[in-house]
Design goal:
- Two copies of one chain form a homodimer.
- The longest helix of chain A is centred in the middle third of the chain and has 17 residues, at 128-144.
- Chain A has a six-stranded parallel beta sheet, sandwiched between helices.
- Chain A is built from seven helices and 14 strands.
- Chain A has helices at 13-24, 74-86, 128-144, 162-176, 208-221, 255-264, 316-331, and strands at residues 3-8, 29-36, 44-47, 50-53, 55-56, 67-70, 90-93, 122-124, 146-154, 227-231, 241-249, 268-270, 291-298, 305-312.
């Protein structure tokens, strides 16, 4: 079975990564249509030996398309995902628009692969910070249950797109050259700074990013009883999100047993040798696709309390790779 | 009462800040002796209108000294603090050597000022990440008690000294110029990276920095029953430590009441207007000496759960300023 594939938002950071991963993984496709906004139409993007010209997004873009990856943001998904589905395409959507819709499966292949087959045309790809979290939590959830989860994130600027990467690079250059630091993307300087603010603030004073992490984690684990809180922060890192995680299991969990299970878990790389200064680092995520877990330790004060440090590439496992893995599940 | 003051480690980042703060606050001194290692002796440092020559640290450096600030690291403190005390000086020590000694008060003037008068020659200055934490916690502790505390830190490179600041600046310059990124201070690249590793690892797989935060917080609050866990991480920020804090109070605490108390608390600046993107930022700590608190919100899942975001200048309130405030208490 070879598919006619479309990538919407093909010139963005996640779209480009999606094209790269389709090539890397030798995804069985018949044709690849690259779609973007009018301003990017006409550009070419390399795929295997071809140079593919980017087409402008139109209402008829999805004719004869079997599978469409949407990586162009919420507004585009809201308008064009239903159009693509009506044209007969299955959509893997990377925006947050459909994630909490009860009729739409929200899938991380290592965690809830069976959910993919419940789709009615749309499968949602979770938020980057959720994906790496649930991959690392799944073995714990299966071994001992999880009753409490407290997450603080350290999220890279590539999660905000190309302009944000350019903003960080420009600001550090301005700093080194003693020039005024200018900003366009973030509400404050991001170079040499930490912003506890990702996406918009909701009425409860949590950010939408924090609420995504809370709700999506419960949906993917299939357990609404887990008590979750989160603080998400943007850090001056280019690629790779880190998460400091504290959790309490329902039942006792032996740390050494957990490490053994991690060593055998697909999609997880255990990096936990503190005596040799080995622990997951954002820059390692440019090399490894697996979700990296380390700094695993029993809490000193609370029975069944465990601390973890989780890192993954937010553009690949946190977005494009997870979406391609969903597609691979679909065609199995 | 005008004192003969000595600053040991006067050419380091904290030592320089101490000299600056003594001048800024018009500290009542009769003489100021600046002391450093042999390699820095002979340099001059500006204090008010004077240029003071730095002297080499010797066994007889503390003759006629009334009060000595030690900011030269643990090894120097271990050897020379007892010598200074035997010479008749009172020592305010910024190293971790004496902090958990039962005979040595560990003081943050906004939190436990009375402890300062129990000294037997040495008063310990807490770790930077502990100071800002306990300043922000004290009003909560007084209003409702604290039973659980989970902290994840975002700590700037200036906490590791001058060479670390230079390392971050050099690495971003190497990155911008497409040159190989070199390192000397940290075990991994710090530019565009996050290291969940501050100070050395202990046998329990917590770092010494994490254990300092746990033990020092209990000692300063005077409550060993608070259950604390911490993950400390180094971030590519020059000055200012941030902390993502989750806590559970013993009794119910109204968030609006807490904010009112913060508004009136000495040493605290409430920065919590998320609808206008206002929250504490590391770069703000270069301007404000107060410990900044924001992102205050009730937990959505646990009764008496509260989230906070705390930022302060690690060189000033986190080190030099707190030490000078201790000295001001002493001479009151």
């Amino acid at each position: 079975m070879k598919l006619n594939i479309a990538v919407v938002g093909a010139t963005g950071v996640v779209g480009q990564e999606t094209v790269k991963i389709l090539a890397e993984r030798n995804f069985p496709l018949n044709s690849l249509k690259l779609i973007a906004s009018e301003s990017s139409a006409g550009k070419t993007i390399k795929f295997r030996d071809q140079e593919i010209e980017v087409e402008k997004l139109e209402r008829d873009s999805f004719e004869k398309i079997d599978l469409a990856f949407f990586c162009a943001g919420g507004d585009i998904s809201k308008k064009y995902v239903p159009i693509a589905v009506n044209s007969g395409a299955i959509v893997i959507d990377k925006s947050s628009v459909f994630r909490l819709d009860h009729t739409v499966p929200l899938v991380v292949p290592e965690v809830n692969p069976a959910d993919v087959y419940k789709h009615k045309g749309i499968i949602a790809n979770p938020n980057c910070s959720t994906i790496q979290l649930v991959v690392a939590l799944k073995p714990i959830f299966d071994l001992a249950g999880i009753k409490r989860l407290i997450v603080s994130t350290y999220q890279s600027v590539s999660g905000s797109g190309k302009l944000a990467v350019q903003e960080l690079e420009r600001q550090i250059s301005q700093y080194l050259n003693n020039r005024k630091i200018t900003r366009q993307v973030y509400p404050h300087q991001i170079a040499f700074n930490i912003l506890p603010h990702i996406d918009v603030f909701e009425d409860n004073n949590f950010t939408k990013e924090e609420m995504k992490l809370i709700h999506e984690t419960k949906k993917i684990l299939g357990d609404e009883s887990v008590k979750i809180t989160a603080t998400t922060a943007r850090v001056p890192v280019l690629i790779g999100h880190a998460e400091s995680v504290y959790l309490e299991t329902v039942n006792h969990l032996d740390i050494n047993k957990l490490k053994m299970v991690y060593l055998k878990s697909e999609g997880i790389k255990l990096v936990d040798d503190t005596s040799n200064s080995k622990y997951p680092l954002p820059i390692m995520s440019e090399v490894y696709d697996d979700v990296m877990v380390g700094r695993i330790r029993k809490d000193l004060a609370v029975v069944n309390g465990i601390n973890l440090w989780i890192v993954a590439n937010n553009l690949r496992k946190g977005a494009a790779l997870n979406a391609v893995q969903i597609a691979e599940l679909l065609i199995k």
